[in-house]
Amino acid sequence: MPSPYIIIVDPFSSGALYAPKFASLGYACVAVRSSPNISARFARGFQPGGFLEGRLFDIDEALERFGAAQAIAVVAGCEMAVAAADALAQRLGLPGNPADSTALRRNKYPMQQALADAGLRHIPSLFIRNPDQIDAATAELEDIAYVVKPVNSASTDGVRFAHGRDGARRALRDSAWQQINDLGEINQGFVVQPFVEGPEYVVDLVAHAGGYTVASVCVYEKIESNGSRFVYAGLEVLDPRDPEYAPLLDYARQAAAALKLQLGPLHMELIWSDEGPVMIEAGARMHGGVAPALFNDCYSPNLLDLAVDASLGRAIETAEVQRQQHGRIVFLITRQKGIHPGPVAADQAALRQLRSYRGHRAFVSQGEPVVPTVDLATCPGIVWLASPDPAQLARDDTHCRTLAAV
């Protein structure tokens, strides 16, 4: 007789953490893919442990195999799973976010329109569906800095910076129209937005029956390197209960409501300029990569536990999580073109001896080409650190930046 199970759509990146957590609570999980066109970068990260039959199913195949009536929850594992998870939850009559507003929690243009409609600070945006519209759509652009990016990409994939109308037009003409992006999806068009100056923050929220719980607040460190003004160098874990961040969190909660978030995690990126916080973009999924693992060391309760509790309909009474220790992700930076030499044994040993060391990951393998780091896509690797002592964290951060390879 079929047993109850939880569906995890696209269990890649940080979505790979869900199945072991659900399994520890006694729940079976089934892995499904949102599309047959999952990019190789994500697909090779699939971890079969914890899933029924240890494989990735097409959605209809899974429902037939395990019984649609036995599914008790649907979870989006990563960015490209958002639309499929919303639609599947609605199809099965399970709790989820409304499928008719998925675009607000996935695509960069409609989410800015939703903020504007709610009377919240937003970034004025042009949406250009095809290259034929470039000249007409950009006719009114001013002599200021702009950001050009795909409407449905993630991270910094396809992002270009430009100045003025002519610069924006050049950036748009050079963009990857109708090409497959890093998520394995075809770019559906591009947005042009004024560049907003200020520190960049990340807020992770979890929606549940009791409202929104702030599961993390972080700030990026960016530096100028290799001809780029916006190279990511670090991500610092902050204290959500610090009154300094109250305006940021108040805005983030209002923005989440404008995006019609009703259940589960929302990963939001914001700029805090002189005029106040403004959302850059958001996605209805957990913070990607290693961040949830770092948060497990730094916050109580942590993001993964809150996301799981929300999906199971458990009561959550915490408004903001408590920071228990300091944490940081160090983004390594390559400054020369070459071939990755592979892990250096001495560096590996020294890294593991750092008091705050919690883990590291290389994004290139031995023998693969490396290029100067100009964005997240060209970052060669990361190290994550946690310690109750911020001075220790700073010392270990400095050491990490001496590494030739991880």
From TrEMBL:
The residues covered by the ATP-grasp domain are 112-312
- According to UniProt, the name of this protein is ATP-grasp domain-containing protein
Q: Which Gene3D superfamilies match?
A: ATP-grasp fold, B domain
InterPro entries associated with the record: ATP-dep_AA_Ligase, ATP-grasp, ATP-grasp_PylC-type
**From which lineage does this chain's organism come?**
Bacteria, Pseudomonadati, Pseudomonadota, Betaproteobacteria, Neisseriales
Which PROSITE patterns does the UniProt entry name for this protein?
ATP_GRASP
Q: Nucleotide-binding as a keyword?
A: yes
Keyword ATP-binding belongs to the record: yes
Looking up Pfam families in the UniProt record yields: ATP-grasp_3
- The organism is Jeongeupia naejangsanensis
| Keywords, comma-separated and alphabetical | ATP-binding, Ligase, Nucleotide-binding
